[in-house]
Design brief:
This protein is of the alpha/beta class. The chain contains three helices and five strands, in the order H-E-E-E-H-E-H-E. Helix content is 31%, strand content 15%. Strand 2 and strand 3 (79-81) form a beta hairpin.
């Protein structure tokens, strides 16, 4: 180990450099230990599983089209309904498993109050899957 230098003057001054060799040695020893022990940590049992193909049974939930015209009238799948009827239908739809998706279509001139009321009623009924339907610009 290097405890001194070629400089013979001022022998009592503290050494201000770090010896990196022991740090590198420790790092290399740890690296070797990890390389050796890493394969031993996997406890996998080698088995030959049978192969089978099947298609998953995906039940797609139905969707309910709720439309609101410019005057604020609400339509359930094309059938006009009032707010009490809408609440009753939303409550019955929330009990279906899987829950249907609500596709909400609103006219450009529809007041936001009407849209917010429909969304609040559906949230109170427990329906969480609501989508807004719009016509793309290209049409």
């Amino acid at each position: 180990m290097a405890f001194g230098g070629f400089n013979q003057g001022n022998q009592n001054a503290p050494m201000a450099e770090i010896n990196m060799i022991p740090l590198i040695d420790v790092m290399l020893v740890l690296l070797v230990i990890f390389i050796i022990t890493a394969p031993l940590l996997t406890h996998a049992v080698k088995i030959d599983l049978p192969k089978a193909s099947s298609t998953p049974n995906m039940t797609r939930p139905e969707h309910v089209a709720i439309s609101i015209d410019g005057a604020g009238a609400v339509f359930w799948n094309g059938e006009r309904t009032d707010r009490a009827g809408l609440r009753a239908r939303l409550a019955s739809a929330s009990k279906i498993s899987p829950q249907p998706e609500l596709h909400l279509r609103a006219d450009k001139a529809t007041p936001y109050q009407a849209v917010a009321e429909v969304m609040a009623d559906s949230a109170r009924a427990g329906l969480t899957r609501i989508g807004f339907v719009a016509i793309p610009d290209g049409r």
